[in-house]
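Researcher: Structure prediction, please.
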Amino acid sequence: MGDENLASQAELALDRQGDYDSLFFEGQWHSSGSLADRAARFAAGLADLGVRPGDRLLVLMANCPEVLITYSAAWRAGAVVTPLIFLVSEDELRTALVDSGAVGVVTTAEFLPKVSAAVKGGGETGGAPGVRFVVVPGAADRPEAAPGVNVLDFAQVAEAAPGSIADRPGTDLAALLYTGGTTGRSKGVPLTHANLFWCGWAAHQSSVRANVVTSVLPLPLAHAYGLLVFCGGFHRDEGARLILMRWFDPAGWVQLAGQHRAQGSALVPSMIQMLLGQPLEQADLSELTAISSGAAPLPDEVRREFEKRVPTATIYEGYGCTESATLISANPYGARRVGSVGLPVAGCEVSVQDDVGRVLPAGQDGEICVRSPGVMTEYWHTTDGAANVLAGGWLHTGDIGHLDDDGYLYVVDRKKDLILRGGFNVFPRDVEEVLVAHPAVALAGVVGRPDVRLGEEVVAFVSLRPGAEVTADELTEHAKRHLGANKYPRQITIVPAVPLTSVGKLDRRKLRRWARGEPG
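Model: Predicted structure follows.
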């Protein structure tokens, strides 16, 4: 059995770190030993249900201890985890079930009706006949929730006697992730045990100097980030404590961070912006030193305000994508560069290339390309786009950016989000940064709208901070003062909420529909 087998690594970590209170969730501590025991029993239960090495197990859950238990159990059984954000639609869920060939689903009670509908199908929509069972914590209390579907209770499945770890080498598949699909239909990204083992090691190497022992986690575990957190723990000599939120609530985050004297937390920029609406100065956040931010650009105005109000904390931006096992670069602890997403993590090589694959010098914008042990080898069940994405042995991320003379990476924007107005390039992020700097603006999203004369016109949608008042004309004047004539938005619409994807990124597909006057 290879050293990179994730189930074996979980056992080695438990032996090295010992049994301790490792996970706090909804008022209760869970020890690392008890979680491992439940995982071993759940793995045996999955095997009793007919799960075999290589089978896919879809995980659609709100945050809870059972997410991490399911990951560990699936790997012990030799199965492949397929995490899916719980905000997916019924159609998206059905597509993933069919495309992955999942034999089973593990979900939480609030999503059982959606899972049941996706599995059964109806009308003109077929179901997912390959799904043989659905496991739900507390399902024994809700026998009527999904008629016609084989629903099993998590605790009952986990009553089986523990068995041995399935023999799976590092080159075998461990996870099948689906891209966010913000620029088109999502694709399956297969990642091996070796991909994820390296990802965890690199994440640990980039954060070890921060010495964060206790952290608050509101980000969804049933997502690529959850795998990063889980695999990073395999490489620690001493255990860490995770304060897990079922889902993000700004007031709840402040309360938990203060109560548990947390030193760190992982957030996305939209969460940091929402925290600015809380009385941060009234909470005891004096132990908070390291906030990691990723998934979307962090406006500098938001960073400055948060660090001013929580003076012990420093926000460290990082960067990655699903195809790279979520990790490419991170700002080193104590050596952050504002505006940068940091240095390539250990074992990762980054180059910036032009449209014909030539490497560009420092300071010049081009497409960010990556080579690392975490990069996938192909997309799942499709060659659509794979040849271009992996051309020349590099992962072409589709993001535009540059490296500085010291190797720090700066992400400018998505290549596909670039607005071409009258022959001039306009990066939406440049416009969004200016709009968010206005004291009344909470969040801004900028896209291009088709224009007969100019090709595209720059349009913006903004949401305001609680109690703030400003007109669209005033925001336009603000933008004109800070942007060139080719960049400032000619149309600004104030909306109750700027749409975000399930992982906190701007939903540009929806914004483009709005810009064209389409519903949805």
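Model: The chain has three domains: 6-16+27-192, 248-415, 418-515.
Researcher: Thanks, that helps.
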